[in-house]
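Worked example 4.2. Below are the chains of a multi-component assembly; read each line carefully before continuing.
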Amino acid sequence: MKYPRGITPPSEGVIKKKRIINKKGNAANRGMVFENDINASNDFYLKHNRALISKRPTPINIVKVDYARGAKIKEAYFEKQSTTDYNGVYRGKYLDFEAKSTQSKTSFPLHNIAPQQVEHLKSVIRHGGIAFFLINFALLNETYLLSAEYICQFYEEQPRKSIPIKDIRAKGILCKESFLPRYDYLAAVDEFYFSKKEK
Amino acid sequence: MKYPRGITPPSEGVIKKKRIINKKGNAANRGMVFENDINASNDFYLKHNRALISKRPTPINIVKVDYARGAKIKEAYFEKQSTTDYNGVYRGKYLDFEAKSTQSKTSFPLHNIAPQQVEHLKSVIRHGGIAFFLINFALLNETYLLSAEYICQFYEEQPRKSIPIKDIRAKGILCKESFLPRYDYLAAVDEFYFSKKEK
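Applying the procedure described above to all two chains together yields the following structure tokens:
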């Protein structure tokens, strides 16, 4: 587990996806760095028996398969994730979250959130799970846990098209950063969901 | 939600996968029928606000992508699921399970279980989640919830290479079958995990 920032262990999927996303340019690239850091944090949590949290594979729509060559997929397309990127179990509770990185220094734009993700998060809450966003302000080196309750309400009322950073700082929990785990977001989960304090 | 047994609503992924697996022959085919029935049960549960449970997408190893044609995947291969097929949230708890169909009338062969799945299930239990197998005896029309605790112990001690059906009948919970949900496995979860009775 000695991978520097932004680098996860070389599992096939991650490497390939990274190569693909690199071509899309810098913003996606930095989003990928954040994703890899979260994946590495999850590996750390698993190894140290803190939690079991994994990334959902990207859904792929398969069109053509060549069976003569050991089920080689010859035509397929990426599909949009209709739920969130991560889920798992922590302290007996179901955990579900989306990790997003933004280049903005002032706010988190709502266009980062799809309507079906809001529906999914509301459903998680309804069934007693813990749901949140991890929002990374890449240029500020600040990452916040913001509850899905807050985000869904903001999304539906839409007083603005983005959540101002001052609101995120006030309502969210800052995630401590270190070498490993890169983002100790479970400490933020403890503070927000298990300490009984109302924010 | 008026789909007969074995037929799920026509979402792209399911249809394509079905077409693929059909070529593998009858056993895989019947496994697919069971999977589709579980998916339909999950859709029913979601619609009726009972639980939020979804199938993990099959991980795919992508080798070649053509960006000139809108990110068309030109070469990729199916990968083995290293965890389980399903997870989600029910009554605030994290739920994680694998659904397997067997043609045997006498036992459930252990070769249906991969070592990394046993590790995954043990990790779920360690973190306070609910973990189990749904085992469908296709030729008997009987489906059982069998706890991961029991299965992991059997797997590690391996007194036999398969779990006899009489043990599954004694230690598992029979899932009621109906039109919708096809398999009411949450009733079995209630009975086993929430009623405080020891089996």
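Take a moment to check your reading of the output against the notes. Chain A touches chain B through 49 residues (CB under 8 Å). Residues 6-24 of chain A have pLDDT under 50 and may be disordered.
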